[in-house]
Amino acid sequence: MSVRSAVRATPASGDVFRQRDFRLFWAGEASNIFASNATTLALPLIAVTVLDASPLTLGFLAAAVWLPWLLIGLVAGAWVDRLSKRRVMIVSSLLPASALTGIWIAWVMHALTIGQLFATAFIIGVSSVFFISSYHAYFPELVGKKDLLRGNARLQGTESVMYMLGPGAGGLIVQAFGAASAGLMNGVAYFLSAVCMKSIRKRPSADRQTRPREGLRAEIGEGLRFVLKDAYFRPIVLYGAMGNLALDGYQAIYVAFLIRTVGVSPQIAGLLIAAGGLGGILGAIAVPPVTRRFGTARGLLIGKFAVTPFTLLMPMTGPRDAVLFFFFGLLLADGSITAGSITMDSFRQMYCPPHMLGRVVATTTFIKYSTIPVGAILGGVVGDILGLRATMWIMTGAFACCSAILLWGPMRRVRDFPSQPPRIAAEAGG
């Protein structure tokens, strides 16, 4: 049975937004993503405006948010599979809310230190590891397999809006109330996320709560083996890792490229970069009709091979009207990324055995995110050596070429992704 046929088998499922629990989940996830993105601006602004931090300090502060993925990413997946995922999401929203409130209190008392900012950044990173691992694993329990694609399209579209609005809104809040007060308001958004998740009525089935457990190391190994040995997951996670390497390679320098090489103002650069969020919204809208017409696997490949080459428009950016090359290049690139994420997330949620979905989410995310800091550093180093425009050509070209990795494996031969691993499907067929 394929992902697409599973969806078609229940055409009366309707719009998932009519479901109360989905609306609460959507609002909670949106609040969390908004707070996370606004805080990525608020923390460095607090460091600069309140503590006069150096550029090196700001670099380490940014790294502190990503470090937990490398330290506890795999372990977090095993823990998520053992615990109530809804409760994990609640705690993962309350912890950063408390940490950001603590920053505001310390600022009011004139006791704020850079160490407290580092601790807060690390807490936010740890919370993100658990929240992301939990919400991807909990979502199939909430809506059922029949509504995964529709629900993920809703969530990813909203995430794109939050990615677009979060930093901008964070900047306005900082300007109006000050950097430390902006951190407090982001803490309120995290708290609202916890309230929404707490209000969800649906509870997991009893068999998932009582399943016998092995040792933590054995469970981590089971998740790793499932991902690395599966014919579908191997190319998907390799594509994600290499794609992020190239993606963060050009994202690390495209602000400097726009301002120093192209010569646009910071305000225009911000508007151009907002095209990424708009592209994400359009990508989310495009997924349902494309997958209905071409299938889930084939639609993913068509989107990658037909759209990602337009990323090469960005290095062609020039003054005046030629800035539109960057706008449309980024719009199409991020639209393809969002559309691909929706399809692959829905496949992962449908395909993986429910008892190990948290580990699979954490394992795939750990592998994909491990190249992010490498790509960012590589983009900066190559930019210093070869120049910003040349680096944009190299990184966007590499990003477009990464799509070929998806042809390694059975994906190129099927119309739709399967809904079960081959062994489980064979046992079910008896």
Features:
77% helix, disordered N terminus, mainly alpha, 430 residues, 19 helices, Growth Hormone, Chain: A, disordered C terminus, 2 domains
State the helicity in percent bands. over 70%
Cα-atom radius of gyration: 21 Å
CATH architectural type of the largest domain = Up-down Bundle
pLDDT < 50 runs, ≥5 residues: 1-13, 206-210, 424-430
Tally of DSSP helical segments: 19
**Coarse structural class:** mainly alpha
Q: How many domains, as an integer?
A: 2
Based on DSSP secondary structure assignment, what is the total number of beta strands? 0
Any idea what the shape is?
Answer: globular
Mean pLDDT: 80
Spell the H/E element sequence: HHHHHHHHHHHHHHHHHHH
Straight-line N-to-C gap: 14 Å
Description of the molecule:
There is one protein chain. Helices cover 77% and strands 0% of the residues. The chain is globular. The chain is mainly α. The protein is built from 19 helices and no strands. It folds into 2 domains: 1-8 and 15-200, Growth Hormone, Chain: A; 217-411, Growth Hormone, Chain: A (Up-down Bundle). It has helices spanning 3-8, 20-49, 55-82, 85-108, 114-143, 148-177, 179-198, 206-209, 216-229, 233-251, 254-262, 266-273, 275-294, 296-307, 324-351, 357-369, 372-386, 388-401, 422-429.
